[in-house]
Amino acid sequence: MGKLRFGVLGAAKIAREKVIPPLMRSERCEVVALASRDAARAAEVAGQLGIARSHGSYEALLADPDIDAIYNPLPNHLHVPWSIRAAEAGKHVLCEKPIGMDAAECEQLIAARDRTGVLIQEAFMVRTHPQWLRTRELVQGGRIGALKAIQGFFSYHLLDPTNVRNVAEWGGGGMLDIGCYPITTSRFVTGLEPARVAAIIERDPQTGIDRLGAVMLDYGSVQCGFQYGTQLVPRQTMQFFGDKGRLVVEVPFNAPNDVPCRLSIFEGPGLGDVAVETIEIPVCDQYGVMGDAFAAAVQDGTPQPVPLENSLANMKVIDAVFRAGANGSWERP
Question: Rounded CA gap, 270 and 2, in Å?
Fold first, then answer.
């Protein structure tokens, strides 16, 4: 069986710099075409990346008979509409996160999947990264004792009002861009769903996007708290606290593709600031790993790493976070 042949909708930065190169180097994927609404731009980017051909419209890409699957990195408000059109054209879909603007949109996507019979998956690359598989194994295996608390932080600094992340009507804002990561990883590691959530959200007075948030997720036996911000000094961390130890994922989300990732375990009396064990995860590119896992699901029928039902559960938590921030009350997903 040959490689899964991808076509890319648009020339987004994440596609050009993060996703396309490792897909082209991966074992099971290849990128055979790229589309833009500007034909010259499509040809330029395809040439720069070594992609065989380009299309001057998204419609032409979806009609290309030599494409098996679509990678959709369009702005958030276009994720579901174009993913549905791709599915209706008979293409499997790997769609950037967030899968949609809200849970209702995700349900539309599930209906399209069921109607067309293709596979659709959210591109949460963390869910297939070996460091997160190892983290889940260690935590669920009792390496830090009984898990009691999770703490996370994810931030960057971006003020440009024309950037898609700062355009509210396009699904811009911190929760859909980065706040979704502590949610999906805490759900992944615990294997649980939060019963209720609370949040404090601050919005930018000019753009209207949520630029700062503090969130609590009540998993029953486990409490998760995290903050995110889009106008802060860049920082990311995830920590898991048990009754016997603490596990730190050093670079949890933007994992490097040129050096090993590290998990550190702390335990013992005092402040626990000296690691008793450091686990190195061999060098890999998480986007290539994600692509190969998706290709295996399409070609071999292996379980999808992130089925749409899981994405729907994540979006329900996100929706509840927004309600909690607006109402100042605990909300149930």
Answer: 56
Query: 């000019």: which residue's tokens?
Result: 206
Mutual angle of helices 130-140 and 180-190, in 10-degree steps: 50
Residues 184-202: tens digit of each pLDDT: 999 999 999 999 999 999 9
What pTM value is reported for the model? 0.97
Residue 119 CA to residue 273 CA, distance in Å, equals 45
Q: For the stretch 266-292, what's the b/e string if a residue is b when 16 or more beta carbons lie within 10 angstroms of its beta carbon? A: bbeeeeeeeeeeebebeebbbbbbbbb
3-state secondary structure of 103: helix
Query: What gap in Å lies between CA 25 and CA 98, rounded to an integer?
Result: 25
Query: Residue 74 and residue 171: Cα distance in Å, rounded?
Result: 11
Identify whether residues 105 and 13 lie together within a single domain.
yes
Q: What φ, ψ does residue 212 adopt, rounded to 5°? A: -150, 135
What type of residue is 45?
V
Residue-wise pLDDT for 113-126, tens only, equals 999 999 999 999 99
Domain end, chosen from 68, 100, 123, is at 123
Task: Examine residue 172 and state whether it is found in any structural domain, yes or no.
Answer: yes
